[in-house]
Design brief:
The protein has 188 residues and is mostly beta strands. The chain contains 4 helices and 12 strands. The strands form 4 sheets. It has a 5-stranded mixed sheet. Strands 10-11-12 form a 3-stranded antiparallel sheet, with no helix packed on it.
């Protein structure tokens, strides 16, 4: 029985979106969904549409490659997006549209070398500004490892019948300079 309980024990999920340092998910006074790197890798998530259906209340309108409109809790209006998109702590909400333009103006970011994705539901204007009335989507990248050299890469090739070939190369290199002092992480 003890072994069964140990197998079912979950790891602690840490949330960084509240801007109070790292907090355990249970201590966050807001509705937050967190998808850690292990879960993203397990489902093969490479773009927003790969994980969005696994988060309650999260959806999107697709206007073509790299052009999305993110929707949280069903709230979406013409003009400015109502769901803020942050890549680490950098807002990437895209360009505002005209009042009559539903527009798909938020970028569809690649999810390579991501630590976790945090989705905060509800108005988040106090922490994230006016474009966060429906909520916030935070893509948190992996930070440099100060103690160890790391490298990873993927090569994707495919072919479409009666069409052209497709391909993608992705890579990451982590280089520490002086153990525990300084490191650089390059992702492309």
């Amino acid at each position: 029985a003890k072994a069964a309980r140990d197998d079912n024990a979950s790891e602690e999920v840490v949330v960084t979106a509240m801007k109070r340092g790292d907090q355990a998910l249970q201590e966050v006074p807001s509705s937050v969904a967190v998808m850690p790197a292990e879960q993203l890798e397990r489902i093969g998530a490479v773009e927003f549409s790969d994980f969005s259906r696994m988060v309650a209340g999260l959806n999107f309108a697709d206007s073509g490659p790299g052009n999305k409109r993110y929707i949280i809790r069903g709230i979406s209006t013409a003009g400015e997006p109502q769901a803020a998109l942050y890549y680490d702590n950098i807002p990437t909400t895209g360009l505002g549209g005209a009042a009559s333009d539903f527009g798909g103006v938020q970028p569809d970011l690649n999810l390579y070398d991501v630590q976790q994705i945090e989705v905060l539901r509800g108005p988040q204007g106090t922490l994230y500004g006016s474009n966060s009335q429906a909520g916030v989507i935070r893509i948190v990248t992996k930070q440099p490892n100060l103690d160890r050299f790391e490298g990873a890469g993927t090569l994707e090739l495919s072919n479409t019948k009666d069409g052209a070939g497709n391909g993608a190369i992705k890579g990451m290199v982590n280089m520490p300079f002086g153990p525990g002092q300084f490191a650089v992480r390059l992702v492309g």
